[in-house]
Amino acid sequence: MVAKDIQIAVDKGAMLPLMEEFYTIQGEGYHTGTAAYFIRIGGCDVGCHWCDVKESWNAELHPPTSTDLIVANASKYADTVVVTGGEPLTWDMTLLTKQLKENHKKVHIETSGAYPLSGDWDWICLSPKKNKLPTQTVYDKAHELKVIIHNKHDFIFAEEQAELVNDNAILFLQPEWSKKEEMTPLIVDYVMANPKWRVSLQTHKYLNIP
């Protein structure tokens, strides 16, 4: 395909900048411990300084890949597919989710919510970032709110975000990995004092799996 045709396909969601795809155990949030096939889409301009997948930021490093091929690969594995990034909502997710559902997959997304919601999702994990706050569409539809705790001020940010998300969203606090020794005890104390929250850990890192 020529560059113009590729760009048209990307704009339509028929091709996406695929960084990696892998079958593993969900390590975070509500579905921790369950098998899932992860599709990591490149491209993110939110720019969290503690991001552990900074190589995903530049979409140009990740070749546009046919959505048909992505779906075909995912269909060989678990019933649940998790779309993550980067920031997947940078791109139109409509076609990807439609095709995954046609293949009888439960489709989850992990997003900062920085862009309007596209696609049809069975589960939306919203992990908001201060650099670029979520759009209202994602606040309204999120099934879980997962706030990363890097310092004590992040508890204030978490409560601000809890006020904005819909009333049905399940609330999680998760220590940023490099600060886990310092922040985890504070999170435990905070959740015990504020039981509307739950603790989330990056259990896949403890298990040494992707």
TrEMBL record:
Binding annotation for substrate:
25-27, 40, 84, 210
Q: Which GO terms describe its molecular function?
A: 4 iron, 4 sulfur cluster binding; carbon-nitrogen lyase activity; magnesium ion binding; S-adenosyl-L-methionine binding
Q: Which reaction does it catalyse?
A: 6-carboxy-5,6,7,8-tetrahydropterin + H(+) = 7-carboxy-7-carbaguanine + NH4(+)
| Entry EC no(s) | 4.3.99.3
**By its UniProt entry, which InterPro entries does this protein fall under?**
7-CO-7-deazaguanine_synth-like (IPR024924), Aldolase_TIM (IPR013785), rSAM (IPR007197), rSAM_sf (IPR058240)
Q: Which UniProt keywords apply?
A: 4Fe-4S, Iron, Iron-sulfur, Lyase, Magnesium, Metal-binding, Queuosine biosynthesis, S-adenosyl-L-methionine
Write down a Pfam family by its short name.
Radical_SAM
Q: Which cofactor does it need?
A: S-adenosyl-L-methionine; [4Fe-4S] cluster; Mg(2+)
Database matches in PROSITE patterns: RADICAL_SAM
Q: In which pathway does it act?
A: Purine metabolism; 7-cyano-7-deazaguanine biosynthesis
Query: What does the subunit comment say?
Result: Homodimer.
This chain belongs to the protein called 7-carboxy-7-deazaguanine synthase
Q: Which gene encodes it?
A: queE
